[in-house]
Design a protein that fits this description.
By secondary structure, the chain is an alpha/beta fold. It folds into two domains: 176 residues, HAD superfamily/HAD-like (Rossmann fold, 3-Layer(aba) Sandwich); 182 residues, no CATH class. It is 50% helix and 6% strand. The chain is built from 16 helices and six strands. Strands 3-2-1-4-5-6 form a six-stranded parallel sheet, sandwiched between helices. Strand 5, helix 15 and strand 6 form a beta-alpha-beta unit. Helix 1 packs across helix 2, helix 1 packs across helix 8 and helix 4 runs parallel beside helix 7. The longest helix is centred in the N-terminal third of the chain and has 31 residues.
Amino acid sequence: MIQHILFDVDGVLLSEERYFDASALTVWELLHSDNYLGLGPDKFTTELSNQEISTIREMVFQNDKVLKFFKSRGLNANWDMIYLTFSCQLLHLLSQINGKEHKKVLNWLQKDIDRQTLLEMKDVFAKYDVEVQFDSFFLDFNLCKANGKNLFHYLNILAEKKLGVITTIFNAKSALWSVCEHVSQEWYVGDEYVLSSTGRPSVQTGKKGFLSEEKTLAAPSDIGQLFQDLTDAGMSIGIGTGRPELETIKPFEYLDWINYFDQNKIVTADDVLRAEKEKPSYAPLSKPNPYTYIQASKGKQTPVTSCLNMNLPIENGDQILVVGDSLADLLAARKMGCRFAAVLTGLSGRDARREFEEYNAEFILDSVLKIKELVKAH
């Protein structure tokens, strides 16, 4: 009998649309702002209408086909998606100057790429007629068979293939990854929260953020009632999300959801990062690693070591239901020995049904609101 329910957030309770908007804007800024590569001809601005944001996202992610590619390969973190998309474009741009500037290209790709390196590239790109080509992503990745974090290594393979440069600089948590992360945070949390969120001030100010503009995947009051009904029925509920703490707690406060939860059982990306710092040999601990959901089920007072050393599948795992929208959620739940309900409200929508069926998901639901009926029946 199900006693505990652990919800993912993006694609389950909140739409990922605002994250994907911020992700596209991040790639756009890195390419066009004078703070980074400064590719013209138009002057970069943060003053954008919703229609302009939508148009940028359509271009950057090729009508979301790039995002769906990442999801299908088990990559669930927006920062990773940004890094891969921008790095692919960067290699494409470097290939256009490689013949005349090979020595500089070689030098750039032998050390970690930080913002200063991007500014050096900007000065060189300005001498040539280089073009961004977003559809080059699929031209470059069409033969890639890698999944998850192994997609980063494929960038090193592309560097050798496209530029004749052997390098190992493209990897998780590189300096360039950190640049992408910070620009993304500027867009999502806005000027008000970027310093507290990242520990660094904005490079590009003028961003109001999306924290108070989240789109929910059902009426906020209906989701709140679901939480109330589950707790009234004696269920414990928790959150296991790849979002940072600020980006989880603030929207939940705006939506009047926060009081339904014991915050000790809201586990976010910040908790995972802290665990990785404490036990670096266990990294990465983000989904599909089950750590997020293990910590959410046990509570944040449980020591990291205890969560990491827990025997899997966990005892009484059949009493825990994980609710997610991605393959990463399903795989995490399966490693824990928990039950899993897929909801078809993520990026791929109803098209995700086939993949969940291929992986024998126990439950496949049209909406998170169906959880109440599911729990009653099981």
